[in-house]
Structure formats: structure tokens, C-alpha cells
Design brief:
With 144 residues, the protein is of the alpha/beta class. Helices cover 44% and strands 17% of the residues. Strands 1-2-3-4-5 form a 5-stranded mixed β-sheet, sandwiched between helices.
């Protein structure tokens, strides 16, 4: 299964990471993610990494390079990023990393998509004054 990027519920972008991916799939993913700040419209990203593998050192380095190159545009349009991990250890690692090296936009990790989307929705309201129109594939998890 490849890395899946779903933007049908834009401004919500949902990324689903598989157990394994190739170098080409990682590079394609990074290139596709650059499309969103280029739209020059506010958006949030949920990365569903439950059961996913982890990027190699080279892949992490390329991701960091892309984030650095796009930092200004991302700060302007990327409202927040939420990561969903099964592992409490991985969630803790993300928290520690963001303390040591704050990302250019708010980022937090969560145990479930519903918790992540509630935070993304609240963060979007705080920045843009409106709620996300849809929670995309997780709409049934949205509180009524």
C-alpha cells in the first residue's frame, strides 16, 4: 500500500502512512505535500501513522529540508499538524522533539483520529474563526 494523501475534505488533509514504503514513494509524498501551502489557503493535516513504519534517516533528512525550504509559506497557511500513533512511546518522542526543536506550525501527537481532529478543529477555529467543514473519513467521530 502506498502513502495515501486525501484532500477531498480540504482544508483537512489526511495522510495515511503504510507499514513500509519505498524511497520513490517518500519523495512523491513530500512533493505532493508541497501542493497545499502553494494553494495559499489555510489548511490542517492529520497524519494517521497507526501501524506505520518509520522513515529512514535519509527520509527524515529530506523531510526536514523540505520543511525548512517551505517554512515561511507553511507558517502562513498550514494552521496545524496532528499525528496519530498507536504507540505511547512514539507520541512521547514527538512531544520531546517538538520541545527541543519547535516546528514552524503547531504540531501534536494523539492516540486516536478523533482526539487529533478535535484539536485540529479547535486550532482552526482559533486561527480562522470557523470550524472545519468536514472531518473527512472520520466524520462519524465528530461530536454533534
Amino acid at each position: 500500500m502506498p502513502i495515501v494523501i486525501e484532500d477531498a475534505a480540504f482544508p483537512l488533509v489526511v495522510v495515511t502512512l503504510p507499514k513500509v514504503w519505498t524511497e520513490t514513494e517518500w519523495d512523491t509524498y513530500l512533493a505532493q505535500m508541497r501542493r497545499f501551502p502553494a494553494r495559499r489557503r489555510a489548511y490542517v493535516t492529520l497524519t494517521d501513522a497507526r501501524g506505520a513504519g518509520t522513515p529512514s534517516a535519509a527520509q527524515r533528512r529530506r523531510a526536514a529540508e523540505v520543511m525548512a525550504e517551505d517554512a515561511e509559506t507553511s507558517r502562513a497557511y498550514n494552521v496545524a499538524n496532528a499525528l496519530v500513533f498507536d504507540s505511547a512511546i512514539l507520541r512521547g518522542m514527538v512531544t520531546a522533539i517538538t520541545w527541543l526543536t519547535p516546528p514552524p506550525v503547531p504540531m501534536q501527537s494523539f492516540a486516536t483520529p478523533a482526539l487529533a481532529l478535535a484539536w485540529l478543529d479547535d486550532t482552526f477555529v482559533a486561527r480562522k474563526g470557523v470550524r472545519l467543514e468536514s472531518w473527512g473519513p472520520f466524520e462519524t467521530d465528530r461530536p454533534r
